[in-house]
Amino acid sequence: MRADFYLIAKPRFLEEPLKLVCELARKAYDSNQWTLVLARDAAQAEELDELLWEFDPDAYIPHQIAGDEEDELTPVLIATPDIDVPARALVINLRDDAFTGACERVLEVVPADPSAREPLRERWKQYKARGFEVNKHDM
Asked: pTM for this structure?
């Protein structure tokens, strides 16, 4: 099990951190990894859904917001907190708490805002305590 923390630093992600999520989802899709994105709320899920449509005009990333019978057929599934969906091998966690389900790898996007980083330091410790190999990537 692995937890990767992506620290936003590059200008292209500072203004729109969800573009980093799109980039991570595209890399996962390109490597045939079915992905669950845990959105913070319905508004964030909708915003991410729109960004995935517009993200790369040359590459379609099959995705949808969870909530219908087609969920299991979609490589990138976006889940809001009110929908219970099974975990996948790769989870991109955008919520305020550490992911507690079973997965092979969880990705955490760390905002550039220093005040938002402190809770993620705690999350780092939680993953380590659960036996995850923990890594940091500057983005």
From this structure: 0.94
Instruction: Judge contact between 1 and 131, C-beta under 8 A.
Output: yes
* Residue 113 β-bridge partners: none
What six digits make up the tokens of 90? 């790769």
> To which residue do tokens 């940091």 refer?
136
3-class state of residue 131 by DSSP: coil
Residue 39 to residue 77: CA distance in whole angstroms: 10
Neighbour count for residue 62 (Cβ, 10 Å): 11
Tens of pLDDT, residue by residue over 93-139, are: 999 999 999 999 999 999 888 887 888 889 999 999 999 999 999 88
CA angle (117, 28, 15) in 5-degree steps: 40
Query: Which residues make Cβ contacts (< 8 Å) with residue 65, sequence separation at least 6?
Result: 45, 46, 49, 78, 79, 80
State both tokens at 58.
């040359």
